[in-house]
Design brief:
Rossmann fold; Alpha-Beta Plaits; four-stranded antiparallel beta sheet; 13 strands; 29% helix; globular; metal-binding; magnesium
């Protein structure tokens, strides 16, 4: 099936359902994790995986001959702890870390300036934020302190400017990391690999950090799928929630 009618060149509110996975010509799936495969939780460690999720992903990987990657903002080690199957390709830190299926990941050293790290820790402690340290960055979660949103944004912009770091805003979280890393770049990297080459990329995600993935999929003659309520997006289709994502994936 062609995907021309699904391309969303001008970001708008994606309304249509994606076509059945079985109808897409040689699909390659790029799946966000939190908010897409698992429901969001107050803290990253509080998520719960549905019992059928791992068998579903492993079966999809086999059916797609390896053209499946989980692309998350979580650190790769954290993501792999939740999805331990070695047959899955995993990318953490918004595309900054990569573990190909059945290939051990290289150990990632910290690229986060120590001074920035200390400033962020002090700020988070003063504002009651939950802090998630990652090999390539630092995330400040304010889901349990929503009134701190504006202060977090101002602080992150200033800190990023002082230390040459990129600021990524998400759902009740702001992250600082080295510039030049995003989910779109890892989609392009994987699409150039033999297992993914000449396929139709479909990127599924729920957050603004997934927009780069939607755009990269569209640029490679595929499309993005937004999960959740309608909003301006580069995705061409939409699924209502995590349960709908599981149902769509399971229909292959």
């Amino acid at each position: 099936m062609g995907t021309g009618s699904l391309r969303n060149a001008n970001p708008s509110h994606a309304a249509s359902l994606p076509p059945p996975l079985a109808a897409i010509e040689r699909p390659a799936l790029f799946l966000d994790f939190d908010g897409t495969l698992v429901d969001l939780a107050p803290q990253p460690g509080a998520i719960r995986l549905a019992p059928h999720l791992m068998p579903l992903l492993e079966a999809l990987g086999r059916r797609l001959e390896g053209r499946l990657a989980i692309v998350s903002g979580r650190a790769l080690a954290d993501l792999a702890g939740h999805l331990p199957a070695p047959a899955l390709t995993l990318s953490g830190s918004h595309g900054g870390e990569l573990r190909l299926a059945a290939v051990p990941a290289d150990a990632a050293g910290s690229a986060f300036p120590e001074a920035a790290h200390l400033e962020a820790l002090a700020f988070a402690a003063a504002h009651g934020l939950f802090v998630e340290a990652k090999p390539l960055g630092f995330a400040m979660h304010y889901r349990q302190a929503p009134d701190a949103e504006r202060a977090v944004q101002v602080f992150a912009d200033a800190l990023g400017g002082r230390h040459g770091l990129a600021v990524k805003a998400g759902k009740m979280v702001t992250e600082l990391m080295p510039p030049g890393i995003d989910k779109g770049k890892i989609v392009a990297t994987l699409m150039a690999m033999p297992a993914f080459r000449s396929s139709t990329p479909v990127f599924i995600g729920d957050d603004v950090t997934d927009e780069d993935g939607f755009s990269a999929a569209a640029a490679a003659r595929g499309f993005g799928v937004l999960v959740g309520a309608p909003r301006p997006t580069a995705a061409a289709a939409r699924l209502a929630d995590v349960e709908a994502v599981h149902a769509w994936l399971g229909a292959l």
